[in-house]
Amino acid sequence: MDIRDNLDRVLGSIRRACRQAGRPEDAASLVAVTKSWSPEAIRPVLDAGHRLYGENRVQEAQGKWPKLKALHPDIRVHLIGHLQTNKTADAVALFDAIETVDRPKLAAAIAREQERQGRQVDCFIQVNTGEEPQKSGIAPAETASFVRHCRSLGLAVTGLMCIPPADQEPTPHFAFLAKLARDRELHHLSMGMSADYAAAIEQGATYVRLGTAIFGPRNAPRAPESG
Ligand SMILES: *Cc1c(COP(=O)(O)O)cnc(C)c1O
Prior knowledge:
By secondary structure, the chain is of the alpha/beta class. Helices cover 42% and strands 16% of the residues.
C-alpha cells in the first residue's frame, strides 16, 4: 500500500465531501493521525507537504515531533487522546492544539501552564455525545457552562471534538456536536475518522482525524483514548 497515494486519495475525497455538502473545498482540514507510526512511516506524508498531525499520547509524541518540527517549523500537532493532568506541562510545551479538554481540573492545569510557559495552545472541548460512562468528555448538558469556565481561565477555546459511540450511527452525533458549537459560536468541529469522515464533513466538520485511511491498519491496535 502506497502511503502517498492514500494521502492523495483522502485529500481528494475530503474536497469532494465538502463540495457535496455545499461548503468550500477547503472547509475541512485533514489531521493525519500518526499514533503508533515511526518517523520513517510518516515521511511520505511530510514529503508531500502535509503539515497537520494528530497524536493520542504525550510521551509517544515527544519521541518524534520535536525533531520533525525542528526540520519543518510549520508543522502543527494536535493532541487527540486523553490528557492526564500530570502531563499538562509537556502537552502545552509540545502541542499546538489540545482537542481533549474535558474537565475543570485539566482546564485549570492548562491555564497554569500557559501562564508559566508564556505560550497559548488552541483548545477544543471534548464532548461525550453518547454519554458513555467509560468515555472521556464533558456531558452535553454541561458543555455551555464548561466553555464559559474555560474561557474565563484564559483558554483559547476554538471548537468542540467528539468520538461517537462505536456501535451507533455517527451522523446524529455529528449533527448534535455541530448544534452545540453553533449555540456557543465555536467555529471548529473536530469529528470524523477513517470510517465516517464524509458524514462528519456533511455535518460541518472543520477537522477530520484520519489514521488508517492513510497509513493502513495499526499493528498493535490501541483504544482511541489510551493515554
Ligand atoms: C486513532 C484515532 C483516530 C484515527 O482513527 P482511524 O480510524 O485510524 O482513522 C481519530 N481520532 C482519535 C481520537 C483517535 O484516537
